[in-house]
Write a structure and sequence with these properties.
Order of helices and strands: HEEEEEEEEEEE
Distance between the termini: 32 Å
Structural class: mainly beta
CATH topology: Porin
Strand content: over 45%
Helix content: under 10%
Number of domains: 1
CATH class: Mainly Beta
Low-confidence stretches: 5-19
Shape: elongated
Number of helices: 1
Strand order of the largest sheet: 1-3-4-5-6-9-10-11
Mean pLDDT: 81
Length: 211
């Protein structure tokens, strides 16, 4: 018979975890990103006009009494950027304009190290990530200035690889108070490669909450 049921019937029993017990937490995160892409073009577009993308997703965190925890995330990510004023080989009257517009499912697996045990807890993240391209609206436009009327010739920018792998790292702060959801702010960096065709680096800022 439960001891509390005998001595304090109005108080429910509590499950006591061992020192090595694992705690599960889940949550939501969202933020914005800026990205830089490297292409196999010759010459590669050099003048970049920055565009802002976004990401939103879910995460699961496993932790115990130590300062280390493990995070598995899944994010719907929109990557955007524009590159202009690259000369087309063999022509002095044409330039490239490359407009990048990808949506992806990104799945990072991270190890987190948390500093401090107070209500404000800085942390560091690092790990690996893979991404699957869900939609590609990227285009390459050739602007021809040799014609009496300037014309644009556009074609889709396709990649032979829809699956990418890379690394990710970041730093941030978690704000935690009893009886309230955790709130975290994070600045991160990703480096992804898709076969030998495309490389992109992203800086992202995220706000997340866990329950």
């Amino acid at each position: 018979m439960d001891y509390n049921a005998c001595t304090q019937p109005q108080r429910p029993s509590r499950l006591i975890k061992g020192a090595a017990g694992v705690r599960f937490a889940y949550g939501l995160k969202a933020g914005i990103n800026v990205s830089n892409f490297a292409f196999p073009f010759n010459p590669s577009p050099a003048e970049r006009k920055q565009a802002v993308g976004y990401q939103a997703g879910l995460f699961l965190r496993l932790s115990n009494k130590s300062r280390f925890s493990l995070l598995l995330e899944a994010s719907y990510t929109h990557l955007r950027s524009t590159y202009e004023s690259a000369n087309v080989p063999g022509s002095v009257f044409s330039t490239y304009v490359v407009s990048i517009d990808y949506t992806q499912l990104q799945v990072p697996l991270l190890v987190r190290y948390t500093l401090g045990r107070g209500p404000i807890r800085p942390f560091l993240n690092a790990g690996g990530m893979f991404a699957i391209n869900l939609n590609n609206k990227s285009v390459v436009t050739e602007r021809d200035f040799s014609l009496p009327i300037e014309r644009d010739f556009s074609q889709p920018l396709t990649t032979p690889e829809d699956l990418g792998f890379g690394v990710t790292a970041g730093a941030g702060t978690t704000i935690r108070y009893a009886s309230l959801p955790e709130l975290s702010f994070e600045l991160g960096y990703d480096s992804m490669r898709y076969g030998n065709y495309l490389l992109h680096n992203s800086i992202h800022f995220d706000v997340s909450t866990s329950f």
